[in-house]
Amino acid sequence: MFKVEKEFDFANKHESLVIGLFDKPTKFSEKLADLDKFFEGQLTELEKSGDISAKKKAISVIHTFGKTGAKRLIFVGLGNETNFSFEFLRQAFGRTFKKIKDAKLRETAIFLDSFTAETVELQDAAHAVSEAIALSTYQFEGYKQKSNEPEVNLETITVYANAADEDEIRASLMVGYAYGKGTNSARTLVNTPGNKLTATDMANYAKELAAKYNFEVEILEKEDMIKLGMGALLAVNQGSAEPPKLIVLKYQGKDEWKDVIGLVGKGITFDTGGYSLKPKDGIVGMKTDMGGAAAVLGAMEIIGELKPEKNVVAVIPSTDNMISGSALKPDDVITSMSGKTIEVLNTDAEGRLALADAVTYAKHQGADYLVDVATLTGGVIIALGTETTGALTNNEAFFEQVLEASYEAGEPIWRLPLFERDKERVRSSKIADLNNSPGREGHAIMGGAFIGEFAEDTPWVHLDIAGTATTNKEHDLGPTGATGVMTRTLALFVERFETL
Ligand code: BES
Ligand code: ZN
Ligand code: ZN
């Protein structure tokens, strides 16, 4: 898909040539001086008249009428160079390539040097462009009967990069593309309805991923869970006609199985709420309740592609949360794999139950560090809205590493407090060790705090993506629906991870 070229020639034939244009201080001086000269100063004139804009994210298309091999010049406004950032560039590229897709171009070239500044080097720009291409052109295929109109996709992108080392640019393009692709896989899983993605389907998907990337894979069946005493995960599945699965993937990038990072993702394929039934408006969309699992699987795909020297165990508890004569009821008391007993006050707080046993299992598999990701609470949406993922931790230094990765991935997270007094609330059952729903107050904290009881002393970060896993606004890096949030954060976090 990507071709890297060092030398640019005006005669080279392209459907379009994408060029970055800074408003300040350069405009058509410096890197773009030759281009403007080739057009005898016309580009500067067009900028003055407003036909080409250097304003942030403005996109101006100029036809060349055969004057250059490129049929069109697509200028991307980059604003003031002093405010230029990697995250802005990724978004600007997203907007640009959406436009190129809408124009049904199969081929384009990009003058990558024009997208660099002191804050963003050529290699970063290469990562940004390939990641943005993958993310921004994503579409969920869906189930409509096919129309006759053939789909036109961007197939070839020639990247002009005046770099010392073309292989480095190629490598960065590959890495960015892997990040984008892995995120898109997560999006597709989340967008898939519950009848088409059962726990069994998710387990099969994980097996295929394992075969492709040589991961060790283990699928625990209901009988295995019974033997292991996974009473919490089993309780969630109790009302279902679909068997539960505990999906385990292991990636070993170090010689020894040590310093293991556990990635645990909530894989509820549909959440009715159970007997604490969701209202009819709140139940629609609950096919996305496996967004945490999707992020973990997406991250594993990226890890499989990039093969960092790290050890990772991914654990996904998967089931739907249904109602039947055998379903879990409020007031029931269950026993988790850890031995801790739980009074179930609300069957709709099922994610924390499933995750409790998954966290315990991850530790049994040697996880020395834990990150759990879950569409866990409506409360996090009330607390932080839909742009920011909520986080909790029991270890500041560990949290810093996740925070750093999220910042770089452009997926903001914000930490909520977790004090002893909060922990006391999840321990406040009169008849069991824990209760799964201590009430509405601060309930995003309560959800995380409950999972923390099972992480115990293992350094742990909890990410609540209930607000961020989906969006109802089309954005520069994707359509409405699933965002694939935390896929890139997790993968980047693993890549960069340093033992505490
Ligand atoms: N899956 C939901 C959380 C959710 C809400 C995800 C909205 C995405 C969008 C979760 O299982 C749930 O129902 N949580 C309850 C917890 C409560 C009963 C303590 C909630 O947030 O209301
Ligand atoms: Zn629920
Ligand atoms: Zn749920």
UniProtKB/TrEMBL annotation:
<dbReference type="Pfam" id="PF00883">
    <property type="entry name" value="Peptidase_M17"/>
</dbReference>
<keyword id="KW-0031">Aminopeptidase</keyword>
<protein>
    <recommendedName>
        <fullName>Probable cytosol aminopeptidase</fullName>
        <ecNumber>3.4.11.1</ecNumber>
        <ecNumber>3.4.11.10</ecNumber>
    </recommendedName>
</protein>
<feature type="binding site">
    <location>
        <position position="348"/>
    </location>
    <ligand>
        <name>Mn(2+) 1</name>
    </ligand>
</feature>
<feature type="binding site">
    <location>
        <position position="289"/>
    </location>
    <ligand>
        <name>Mn(2+) 2</name>
    </ligand>
</feature>
<dbReference type="GO" id="GO:0030145">
    <property type="term" value="F:manganese ion binding"/>
</dbReference>
<feature type="binding site">
    <location>
        <position position="266"/>
    </location>
    <ligand>
        <name>Mn(2+) 2</name>
    </ligand>
</feature>
<keyword id="KW-0645">Protease</keyword>
<dbReference type="InterPro" id="IPR043472">
    <property type="entry name" value="Macro_dom-like"/>
</dbReference>
<feature type="binding site">
    <location>
        <position position="350"/>
    </location>
    <ligand>
        <name>Mn(2+) 2</name>
    </ligand>
</feature>
<dbReference type="GO" id="GO:0005737">
    <property type="term" value="C:cytoplasm"/>
</dbReference>
<dbReference type="GO" id="GO:0006508">
    <property type="term" value="P:proteolysis"/>
</dbReference>
<dbReference type="InterPro" id="IPR011356">
    <property type="entry name" value="Leucine_aapep/pepB"/>
</dbReference>
<dbReference type="InterPro" id="IPR008283">
    <property type="entry name" value="Peptidase_M17_N"/>
</dbReference>
<feature type="active site">
    <location>
        <position position="278"/>
    </location>
</feature>
<dbReference type="GO" id="GO:0070006">
    <property type="term" value="F:metalloaminopeptidase activity"/>
</dbReference>
<keyword id="KW-0378">Hydrolase</keyword>
<dbReference type="InterPro" id="IPR023042">
    <property type="entry name" value="Peptidase_M17_leu_NH2_pept"/>
</dbReference>
<keyword id="KW-0464">Manganese</keyword>
<feature type="binding site">
    <location>
        <position position="271"/>
    </location>
    <ligand>
        <name>Mn(2+) 1</name>
    </ligand>
</feature>
<dbReference type="InterPro" id="IPR000819">
    <property type="entry name" value="Peptidase_M17_C"/>
</dbReference>
<feature type="domain" description="Cytosol aminopeptidase">
    <location>
        <begin position="346"/>
        <end position="353"/>
    </location>
</feature>
<feature type="binding site">
    <location>
        <position position="271"/>
    </location>
    <ligand>
        <name>Mn(2+) 2</name>
    </ligand>
</feature>
<keyword id="KW-0963">Cytoplasm</keyword>
<comment type="similarity">
    <text>Belongs to the peptidase M17 family.</text>
</comment>
<keyword id="KW-0479">Metal-binding</keyword>
<feature type="active site">
    <location>
        <position position="352"/>
    </location>
</feature>
<dbReference type="Pfam" id="PF02789">
    <property type="entry name" value="Peptidase_M17_N"/>
</dbReference>
<feature type="binding site">
    <location>
        <position position="350"/>
    </location>
    <ligand>
        <name>Mn(2+) 1</name>
    </ligand>
</feature>
<comment type="function">
    <text>Presumably involved in the processing and regular turnover of intracellular proteins. Catalyzes the removal of unsubstituted N-terminal amino acids from various peptides.</text>
</comment>
